[in-house]
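#struct-help
A.M.: can someone run this one for me? Single chain, 349 residues.
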Amino acid sequence: MNHWLFIAPALVVALAMSTFTQAQETIKDRKAFIPSRKQAAVGGKAIGILLTDGQPVLSTEGRSGPADQLVFSSGGNSYRWIYVPTQDNPQITNLQVPVGDKGEKAVYAALNLANPRAVLPWAVTQSYALVELEVNGGRGSPAGDSFVATEIKVIENSKDFPLKVADVVKQVKARYEEYLVKQKNAIDKAMKDGLEKSLGGKPATGPRERKDLMYLTWLPESSTLRVHFRTTISDGAYTVVNVGDPRLPPRKLPLAPKGKVLPRDPGSVVFIVPEEFVLRAAPPKNFATKVGTTFGIEFGQAYIVNKKGEVTGTETLPIDSFTQQLNAPVGIGGPRPLPLPVPPVREEK
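D.P.: on it. Structure tokens below:
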């Protein structure tokens, strides 16, 4: 009995150390933390997360869609737009869609880009949901930005997948906010170091800004949900300057002196341009812009969640600093286009 009592505390310590190590696991590939243009082929059926508010992640890739769009995430890849068949008032008609491994073309007569209203026939009612999709009528899709979901089945909150993704997202958002509170001293120190390094001891003018980015994906091989949070905090020393309009004003069309007619070649068309119809050049306008030095830090965490909705691991994106110089915008080259001429007046015979 005494021997068992001696081992038990050792086991507790070992387990505690294991948990601590797991919590401190570090992300090594910063660029892959939020995927960029990472695309893969999809089979005839695909399991993943159907979610709203995907635009911030799409913006990092230079992509943009409607405010109410839904996107699909699976396998740690970039978000994909999905289209759904419809019978009433389709947004898109006769769309050619690449299908299969080789990208053969299939034509879909009536489609809508997926949004909360468009997926109601498949009982999708949550902002985040684990779903199984039939891809392009079961033919699959090559790597790309989009495909057609011909069938959608919500599979969360079931015997095989007990988790509810919306509840998990709410939970890990709260955990991440707690993490930020605990990291306050480290954040403040990193920002202070950035101030000294970037501005050489000069004070920052502010404002300090914080931007959060959240990325979700489902890993089918391990039946695991991953939720990544990346935070950027920035500050700087700025001044506001007025920049003149660098573009040249339009040239005026030539006008004949009053009572005279401009010389013309035989067969040429006469333009009668009353002076009051000639476009006047607006005076150059100044516009205000912010210039100076921006400095800041970037960091984050990833939460690994099993199919029961339990957080089983945490990975840390360590603090990394950056500096950026904001310069006045370069003037737009070249003059403005000439105004269109007034149509010729037909001479009465």
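A.M.: thanks! DSSP finds four helices and twelve strands in the chain.
D.P.: also worth noting: The chain has a mean pLDDT of 85.
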